Automatic annotation (TrEMBL):
It holds the Pfam family Asp_Glu_race. Belongs to the HyuE racemase family. Gene3D superfamilies: 3.40.50.12500. This is Racemase. One of its GO terms (molecular function) is amino-acid racemase activity. It comes from Pseudomonas cavernae. InterPro entries: Asp/Glu/hydantoin_racemase, Hydantoin_racemase-like, Iso_Racemase_Enz_sf.
Length: 279
């Protein structure tokens, strides 16, 4: 039986041709036969450039952009998707989205951290944006994994460097290894290559370890967790928690009314143009 997963990126995918194509190829490689990953990005014009990092290093701006993630999740459920998968390390509004939806909601960072815990005692995370180190540490604590986090370090290059490296990644991969060895010196036994663009670049070129320490394919972990959650739902009907302040689901019509009240319904509650299907 097929599985339909709504992939939600923090980038405007139509602005990022090489990354978009690399994602599609990686999804085809990792997802099992019958799994369809429908790729979605942020609304065109969300950012001043093709680099979201100038916004998402600020908590308040990331919170506001998280409204698109909420709306996309509502669209995913109403369009009959089997799972909603947030494909970005910061995981904007993850807890809130889970309280809105009945279908499985999978977070990129959480999936990576949980998988890393099965591969080594401690994991380390590499990021493009220095300010995200605090958020990654807070998310690890929220996921109950603070003691398993060795450290968070800047990878030593930026988002734009990764985009240009898809044609020739040799130099960038060596710089990545330098940063990975710093994490290993901090005690990391698993390397999580933070943001998805770096992840897909490394995975596409077979980089899966540094000095005997595994380099996790976070996108692969994210896909497999989404598939597993759908399988569990179908096998025995398991569903997300629906009680308590953080998990009880509000009435759907009231959610839509509130989006409308704040002037967001026209922009966010209509289906975004589908960018394609992979895997």
């Amino acid at each position: 039986m097929s599985i339909r997963i709504w992939h939600q990126s923090f980038t405007v995918l139509s602005d990022l041709g090489a990354y978009d194509q690399a994602l599609r190829a990686h999804f085809r490689k990792v997802a099992r036969p019958g799994t369809e990953i429908h790729m979605h990005g942020m609304q065109p014009g969300t950012y001043r450039s093709n680099y979201p990092g100038d916004d998402i290093k600020h908590s308040a701006l990331q919170y506001l952009h998280g409204l698109q993630f909420m709306a996309a999740g509502l669209n995913a459920e109403e369009q009959g998707f089997d799972a909603y998968a947030i494909s970005t390390l910061p995981e904007p509004a993850l807890r809130d989205i889970r309280s809105l939806l009945d279908i499985p909601v999978v977070g990129y960072g959480e999936s990576a951290m949980l998988t890393a815990c099965m591969l080594g005692r401690k994991f380390g995370v590499l990021v493009f944006i220095d300010e995200l180190a605090e958020l990654v540490q807070e998310n690890a604590a929220r996921h109950g994994l603070a003691e398993r986090l060795a450290s968070v370090r800047h990878v030593g290059f930026r988002f734009a460097d990764v985009l240009t490296a898809f044609s020739d990644p040799t130099a960038l991969i060596e710089r990545f290894r330098v940063a990975a060895r710093a994490l290993i010196a901090d005690g990391a036994e698993v390397i999580i290559p933070g943001e998805a663009p770096l992840n897909v670049l490394l995975a596409s070129h077979g980089i899966n370890e540094v000095d005997g320490v595994p380099v996790l394919d976070s996108l692969g972990a994210w896909i497999k967790q989404a598939e597993a959650m759908v399988d569990l739902r179908r096998a025995n009907g398991v569903r997300p928690c629906n009680r308590g302040y953080f998990s009880a689901r509000p009435e759907r019509q009231r959610v839509k009314e509130i989006f409308t009240f704040y002037g967001l319904s026209e922009r966010f509650l209509t289906p975004e143009q589908q960018l394609g299907v992979t895997a």
